[in-house]
Amino acid sequence: MNLMRQTFSCMSAALLPAYSPVPSYASLPREGDSTVEYTPRAGRQEPATGTITKRWRSLVVIFKNQSQDTVNAREEIPTYGRNSAVVGELSVDNAESVRLITVRVEGILHLSSTDTGSYNQTVVNEQRTVWDTAKTARLCPSLVGFAVAIPMSYKEDDKSYRTPPSYEAICLGSPLIVVKCSYRVIFKVTRANTRRLSLRKISTKTHTTPIIFRPRNRPARPIIENTTFLASLKIAPAEWIQTVVTIPTRQHEIAHAVQPITCHFLIPSVQTFCLNDTIPFHIQLCGSPTSLALFYGTITPESLQPGKKPRRRHYSAIVRVFLARQIYLSNVNGRESWRTMTIGEGKIRPVVPPADHFDADDASEIAVNWEGQVSCKNDVDCASFNCGHLVVKDFIVLALTPANNRASALLPAQHAQPLRFVTDGNRDDCACGWIERSILANRAGPRDDRAADASWNFMPVQASRTHKLSVLPTNSCIPEEPIEDLSPHFKRHRTRAPLPRTLSAPSSPTLISTTTTQPFHTHEMAANLMPRADSFNARVRGTSHIDFRTATTGVAAKTMRNEISHLVATVGDAATKKAFDTEMQAFFYLFTRYLSERAKSQDLDWDRIKSPADDQIVPYANLPKPSDVKNLNKLAVLKVNGGLGTSMGMTGAKSALEVKDDMTFLDLTVRQIEHLNTTNRVDVPLILMTSFNTHEDTLRIIKKYANQQLRITTFNQSRYPRIYKESLVPCPTRADDDKKHWYPPGHGDLYNALLHSGVLDQLLAEGKEYLFVSNSDNLGAVVDESILQHMMDTGAEFIMEVTDKTKADIKGGTLIDYEGSIRLLEIAQVPSEHVEDFKSIRKFKIFNTNNLWINLKALKRIMEQETMELEIIINPKVTDDGQSVIQLETAAGAAIKHFKNAHGINVPRKRFLPVKSCSDLLLIKSDIYSLEHGQLVINAARMFDTTPVIKLGDHFKKIQNFQKRFKKIPKILELDHLTVSGDVSFGRNVTLRGTVIIVANEGQRIDIPDGCVLENRLVSGNLNLVEL
């Protein structure tokens, strides 16, 4: 058998043909060779051999394994990637005294929004002991090595999430969103104290330095390069993914002549790109010649309507492709919030069709094509990621706007295609692209996404004198108005070959709305929200100036955010801390609005201000009579009770001041409502909005009303920190700092305080539908059933009581018509050159009494589903130590613009009787008024329709001086005018009639004796009791 095998093997070997030698292998094709298939290698980073050194007084730390690009950056921050470890060496002074050295790597994820509140999560907390004398029993060396690995995941609620990269974004506007994921290394060195007189045996010093964590990733395969869609369609159809978008027609009188346009939008099917990648895309519009001509603007809508005159101005269509990034906060304190920003603008160019492209026999449908590229801006240095509560996702967005979209039968259309950005590319030359981007971002200054929503802002299409298609330039500025129709996307498209035009579009991806609280699923934008072709170049001209303001705004916002975080950290109790944090988030939102408005430098356009129309101001005489007294059961009364009366020298709650017959403001209010309830057998509760200055006083005072026939509810308005004018940082350094560092932010805080305190929900649960709001010192603000009936009959959601302006009211806010909507104009909003116009009684005949009637259901809707942004009033102050500070305040009446069918009612002057000074107090205390069930009534013996004008000098300014100078309030029933200046005192039973002027010169004194009668008298000089 063995012999047979050997014979067969010899015969087989003899039959084999001769082979040439094995060719040598070469990685690159040689002459005559061809490449059948080639997969490029993933980019390989050069070994990181650089070092970064951080120095402190007694400690020097060397971080190893750093990229040379990171070392050469302006700000040397140690940077680490996936599966990295913080490795280095540390050198300590006086090593013989060192007992313990620990190194801890800490990562904190901070999320906050005006919608959700704040949330902090520790994502990395790794600690290593690098030296312990107690365990080694020897002295610490002067040089110690350390290594702490950065974990790639963390757990929360028994779920595992990937460790997020370093990221920071501030999105100003509404809702305000602050996102920060930061990492740091903490070195703790414990030493034995060698000083003989020291009481401490050991001391520990902590040294902290930030690091950057950027885990690297790359796409599964590269994108097709150096070719266009038309050139690669036949050879590589699977490299492209196609989406079909329809430009629909609206219900229009010319719609029957216009057919919808089909748009094919194609991008690389990989849908995962490096931050450095240039993403190609292709756009094709298919439709009838009429539809495309209407889209382009070569024909006008009027040309399709017989008998209509064509417009003189011509409009052009707009096609825009851009990259959008959405920051989505998921389930933060049980709520959601999101903002969207533009991170790249596309370059679009038309594709010239071949000569035989058009078929003369079939003109029912034609097609036009564009192609282009889009890439991220240089300051985008973080890839897409998802870490549970925070999702940073990206889209490529196609926006199509027909020419003259307001009149066109074609509607605008928008499509958002989801994609993902990664740090590295699939090619050799795209590796480590995120490092260069990080360096560029650092050199460009601090990251500021204050214009997050603004990058989605669109404006109406403006007329153009060309019929060509307008394509937005790549250096387009941020537009002005936020887009509305975006909703959340949670699906991915499958890779597929290009679709025929006859097939329907795949399920449309969606984004989250940037302006609504809940997702809004739609893919059509309102015509007046699309970009205006000529609105961008105008903005580019002022770019350098705007960029400077923008940079300073971003720095100020970040500084304030850090200061607020420190304030919140000083609160120990968990419940108190949560409430204080919510309050500070609202303040931060107001502060960022202030920064944004200051950066824009946009003043009120005085030429657009008009007097209110007749239907916007209803005369009180036209109000209906109340039909059913039981309607009062739907009403609640709120008094703004946060003032101290500092202008009158008071230190406690102003509502505790005795004003009439030994009764305080609060006493009179309680008597009024108690009489209303008992007389009509209804239940009208009294609500007091206090401030941190008056809350304790109010709680103590209302105890005496325990047996009255009414319910009293109190709640506290917000407490905001004063801001240093120059540095724009808050005055307090702790939450429990002195009251002088804080302020109540005006009565405009009413709406937020009602919502967050739970009082709004409580009133609605009790069946209350209307709220009457007024200042506690306005003694004329009583419940008026006629106004309540008018509000119910007209369905008005907001009513403001106004009254005729006099020379004494020139600084009061007034209602105006601004671009067709009713608004409140305060003197603080008026440009300096128009202040005198504002004070004019001829132009502005009415002013706001701050008596407001509000529909509670409408208020609930606006606060939870819409946005309430009240005009900011900047109130400058000077502290006791001479520091200039500012207070950001709002007015409650400014909310009128947010309510439906809101208007004013011109009420009689008797409904506005405030006590702002001691001159007002003298009038109220006098015999001009009497009381009926807590309500002021003019004495019937008064012969004049108006009340006298009283002007008391500075000697009467403080309430203490006022009480000393009037032994008893004079009788002024027949008085027309009183002026008192200088050191003047009044005796008992003094009577003043007509016009009385009393002037005591400086250094002189005038004493009015008991029982004196002054009628049309001018008194001056230095007089005593005997001379009069």
Question: Can you give me a brief rundown of this structure?
Answer:
By secondary structure, the protein is an alpha+beta fold. Helix 8 (543-569) runs antiparallel to helix 9.
CATH fold description of the largest domain: Spore Coat Polysaccharide Biosynthesis Protein SpsA, Chain A
Overall, the morphology is globular
Low-confidence regions: 7-13, 431-549, 1024-1028
Count of discrete alpha- or pi-helical segments spanning 4 or more residues: 18
Count of individual domains: 5
Helix fraction, binned, reads 10-25%
- Annotated CATH architecture of the largest domain: Alpha-Beta Complex
Kindly report the average pLDDT value. Answer: 79
First and last CA, distance:
158 Å
Described by strand count, sense and barrel closure, the largest sheet is:
11 strands, mixed
Radius of gyration: 38 Å
The CATH class name of the largest domain reads Alpha Beta
* Beta-strand content estimate: 25-35%
Superfamily (CATH H level) name of the largest domain: Spore Coat Polysaccharide Biosynthesis Protein SpsA, Chain A
SSE-based structural type: alpha+beta
Q: How many extended strands?
A: 49
